[in-house]
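tool_call predict_complex ligand=1,6-di-O-phosphono-beta-D-glucopyranose
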Amino acid sequence: MPIQAFILDLDGVLTDTAEYHFRAWKRLADEEGVPFDRRANEELRGVSRRRSLELLLGQRVADYSEEQMEEMMDRKNGYYQSFLESITGDDLLPGARELIDGLKRRGLRIAIGSASKNTRIVLGKLGITEAFDGIADGHSVTRAKPAPDVFIHAAGQLGVPAVACVVVEDAASGVEAALTAGMLTVGIGPQERVGNAHFRYNSTEDTDLNEILGC
Ligand code: B16
Ligand code: MG
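tool_result ok
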């Protein structure tokens, strides 16, 4: 079946909010007296907010009540959202606008498939909300990546079967989710992170639509 749609991850594919996530988690970790550094932050790429907190706390997760977990997620999100206030169209990653334009020129439908509950805020700040025919995010599904749900949800919004969708992802959890969804999968980043994808490029800018589409 010919490819009809692309589902694009947000953080790490269209914009790089990982630094803001890091600073927000770091502030929370410092306040809680939990060690946390940039290497540990890499483990949180594409991972839901709750799972990120669990990974950050490690064994200490057992020391906290559900209420305290909720409060910490809210606190981190408050720090993160204050960073988001400064985002503009200049924060699109190199090649992101060209990727969107290239897909539209080819008459392909496009959706967002992101784990983030801040997706609509980020898209609005970047000024690209209108470019998408569907938006599936952290509010759309219960099971986060690596479950395939967010991509299946996006395909449903577009009315396109999974086998006619391509997913572009920067996280190992997202690549796994896309493969489980039965979609052609493009990894953005190093081999050790996204090497299981059908195609891999070092950056969004390097993405070759002709190669992916077999033109
Ligand atoms: P939020 P993506 C993911 O977005 C981020 O990569 C990950 O670091 C973050 O924890 C997750 O969203 C949840 O974000 O706290 O805003 O709901 O890469 O799936 O676009
Ligand atoms: Mg991502």
